[in-house]
Design a protein that fits this description.
transmembrane; transmembrane helix; membrane; DUF1206; 78% helix; mainly alpha; 2 domains; globular
Length: 279
Amino acid sequence: MGTTSGAGTSAQQAGDSDALEHLARVGLIAYGVVHLLIAWLALQLAWSGGSGSADQSGAMATLAQQPFGQVLLWVLAIGLVALALWQLAVLLRHRAGLRSSGDQRKEAAAKSAKAVAKAVVYVFLAVTAIRFATGGGQSSSGQEQQTVAGVFGWPGGRWLVGLAALVVIGVGAYHVHKGLTSRFLKEIDTAEASAGQRRVIERLGQVGYPAKGIALALVGGLLGWAAITFDASKAGGLDSALHTVLDAPFGKLLLTLVALGIAAFGVFSFARARYPQRT
């Protein structure tokens, strides 16, 4: 009992750390900036045939080209690492629930899995930012095909790629559901916001989450098509997914809507930084 209590206290202190919360706010702002840059690159792709990758690597490259770009990238990386640590603090909070049984254990397991997944995303973005800050960044266009081709060489690699595709599509569908049902409001504490601010924040989430979900689902679809055809060249990341939207009927309009939705998600991240979730 003493050990369990000590672990719970440590988790509580980790989650309630003012320093960690301030850094996490920086991370949420950085996360929002990345999405705004991706949205801008997507709009350029839609209307001027932009040559940059409309994904996280393109966003980092754009940031690196700005005055004090390297400093900004380091700040972004530190904030994203703080966000990852914040998610690990959330994971610690659910340790007791994982030892329980029934619905409580299932809920703790689901929340723990989400925290781990978010931490992985934040660490990946932080590493990408560090690479561009140190001059070692490169476009992710084509890297996805190389990765998939490598996995195809593993025993059962084709099935692993197919499974990964289903996971990404599932995450995309969850984002759409989260936006349509406004479940994202559980991740933000707007008690101090005015009624008008709460309405704006809710609309941003209702637009942003489905747009991001659609983009993720398209990435998963490309991955799944690569598994079905056993052709790594069919796979692709966010940049390839947005090109797929552009090639569809009314592609410019559709891509513009997706870009505006991703921008809305970025602004929603700013709102989360202003009114962070109290856990």
